[in-house]
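Now read these lines:
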Amino acid sequence: MAVAQKKAASKEQIFSWEGTDKAGKRVKGEMRAGGEAQVNAMLRRQGIKVSRVKKQRMSVGSKITEKDIALFTRQLATMMRSGVPLLQAFDIVAKGHSNPAVTKLLFDIKGDVETGSSLTNAFRKFPLYFDALFCNLVQAGEQAGILDTLLDRLATYKEKILAVKAKIKSAMFYPTAVIIAAFVITAVIMIFVIPAFKDLFQNFGADLPAPTVFVMNLSDFFVSYWWAIFGSIFGSIYGFFEAKKRSRAMQVAFDRFLLRAPIFGEIVRKATISRWTRTLATMFAAGVPLVEALDSVAGASGNAVYHDATKKIQAEVSTGTSLTVSMQNSEVFPNMVLQMVSIGEESGALDSMLSKVADFYEEEVDTAVESLSSLMEPIIMVVLGTLIGGLVVAMYLPIFKMGQAV
């Protein structure tokens, strides 16, 4: 039965229609259905006299990103707070989006809601885009009748998390790009430039300096095995990411190394703590029970070490241990975070304290990224200067020696 329903849903198309309602007023809209006959039948039941039905051509569109989901959540929250009905809000957001893939997704969700499904269940059908945290908050909003408030809180949460991720990416991008550029430039020099000097030095008539001999031998190796060098580098990178994706142990080891890495490790730790506390604050403020909220927090932490620690915290909290003591036993949270959580538990304002911790660590990430950018520039200049300059000097040493002999 479920398979048949899925096949029927996959054959549905989006149709635009025009007609007149019972008052004779011209109306138009879009509808997802299995064919024109179904559109006509559904509109007749609504008292609309149809004048035109046309199937819409939907392009595949680009990939749906977290930014698309955050933007949709913000738009939906804004419209619902303004009093726009849910289905009409979906219709407006879907039609106004530039990515056809998002438009199709929103029309699919709208179609489910129109057939009587709750908004939470409609979202749960697309776990690739709407995780457990998203669905749990929407469910809490539906049950409490404050869907617009929780959507607004959810949109704020997603925007802040995306901002932190963007800062981390910007901190990593510059040194990564420079390293790649340095490798490419070095490879070009080794494969194309050094051999030209080698031909020049063949009739030198004297022993070449040791640095020059070393660079020329290295160049010969590059020329002979460039395919193996590039292949092994790209193969190693691909194999590493595949192993990280498929092996839980590899993922934990990498995330633990990332937290302990010099310079970058502290930024990653602060970003992870800000995301952890922000997620728990959002869930707890929405009225989600602590044990259930911790389950979503573990998935949203973004780091395998903190995921495992959160699972242990959840197990201890479920047996009656306080959140502060459970977090202290995990040994992954700084003392300041533990003190703030303790104050929050004692005062009954845990969500407020967690939000303040998240704000503090987000500011710490901003400061650390700015400091890292100013620190990395001179380091990268020194490394590049030493690398490229060393190659140039090594190849010009014989020329200097020849000049001294003359």
Remarks:
- The longest strand covers residues 13-20.
- Strands lie at 13-20, 26-33, 49-55.
- The chain has 16 helices and three strands.
